[in-house]
Amino acid sequence: MEFKIILKNKKQFLDLLLLADEQENRIDTYLERGTLFVLYEKNIPQCVCVITQEQEHIYEIKNIAVRNQRQGYGKKMLEYIFYYYRKVCHTLFVGTGDSPLTVPFYKHCGFTYSHTVKNFFIEHYEKPIFECGIQLVDMIYFKKQLQLKG
What is the pTM of this model? Predict the structure, then answer.
């Protein structure tokens, strides 16, 4: 397993990024300003994650996508992100739909509920998004407190 930070040609991972964010123009709003991490297993990208700095010591996971879910790649990626940002971040946010797939995952990884942005998916996406047969409407934000270690 190997982690890499991608600085150029980030769109080469668009197929993976689209697994977590179905609209390319939404990805365009954060991809270039964010840091793109890729987890490789046997030289195959298995997981991608885009992190943006929102304020001093506050970062947000804008996209985390896994090629083959339930293999531990998402959890390994988050553990790496927690370690990588431990010196510069005290609060890490992630926004997601109210889905039985993603909410338990973030809670299992130590995130707690922060706030809700009503109608986010209806107002910012051209087509309805469904997960597990449920239309995503509100963006649910979770946060994780990291220890700043100098």
Answer: 0.92
